[in-house]
Amino acid sequence: MDVSLAGKVAIVTGAGPNIGSGIALALAKYGATVACNDIDADAAKTAVKRIERNGGTAIAIPGDVTDEEQVKGYLQEVVERFGRVDILVNNAALLGGKGVLDESADFFRRAVEVAALGNFLNTKHIGRYMAEHGIRGSIVAISSSNGWSGSAGVIAYAFHKGGVNNFVRAAAMDLAPYGIRVNSFTPTAPTPDNPELIAERGAGGVLERPQAFRHGIGGATGTESWRRPARWTGERMPLVPMGTTGTPTDIGHCVAWLCSDYSRLITGCDFVVDGGARAKNFAYAPAAVADLAGPAPLVPLDVTGELDRELSM
Ligand SMILES: NC(=O)c1ccc[n+]([C@@H]2O[C@H](COP(=O)([O-])OP(=O)(O)OC[C@H]3O[C@@H](n4cnc5c(N)ncnc54)[C@H](O)[C@@H]3O)[C@@H](O)[C@H]2O)c1
Prior knowledge:
alpha/beta; Rossmann fold; seven-stranded parallel beta sheet; 7 strands; binds nicotinamide-adenine-dinucleotide
């Protein structure tokens, strides 16, 4: 009883080197042919190369998810090339930003636009293609823990991820009559595990941001006397019951299963792979990581990356 996506064709939007690339790789490793979109053509091509060096089949379909003609264009390209589309992962998003006192209208507008039109236009045109061709497809929107609860310093992100969550439930109702499923997956600050990303940016996987871009949530970015801190900066208690919120590989396993026929009746739902982080009551502080048994070993997907890393050690 193996989960298999053999014969299925997937489109993953925003297939940048972290979560998008991880999901695209997972879909390929489970047998799907994958079309990797990104507004950054190099990011899309890099995701394709990662899939190919792991033995999968992929093409790059660069484009802006907010541009309807471009969405229709890359959908057509995928259909001409592979004859069908069974899976859509709406992953593209603008991360970061600032708090409500400091965010600019331009950033807020664009961040909301990428999430809103990205999810809408891709779900509309690819869902319509699936419906017209009798394909009982699976659509997965990538949300965030910030879509379910509040953090300081990410007001645009909180707004659009909250929107994504109910978009999924409504789109699930629209597409249920066609046998097409719509669900969300909620990442919770996974630890990057793409070897190329780590080689380029270090273990955290993020480029060091200038002070001015660090959230604007309190005294850190402003010297005004009225500013108050919004984030605890002292020693941190353990936050995650199982000690880790996992990696993009963990996300990929879950999304691949969600796109398989095993989940044929799952629609309008949200999934987390977060070591219990979201289930935790606010007043409960988990044990220290060193005292935990830890999760079962990760089943790796980037096999050549693992081998390369072992060889270079
Ligand atoms: N990294 C995290 O800790 C985290 C946590 C929770 C949720 N998420 C979500 O996971 C997803 C991926 O996050 P990530 O960490 O890999 O971020 P990322 O910034 O590395 O990837 C997002 C990609 O989307 C692309 N993109 C942006 N605008 C686009 C557009 N208009 N058209 C096409 N592509 C566009 C970017 O170029 C980028 O490659 C996002 O939806 C994000 O909100 C991430």
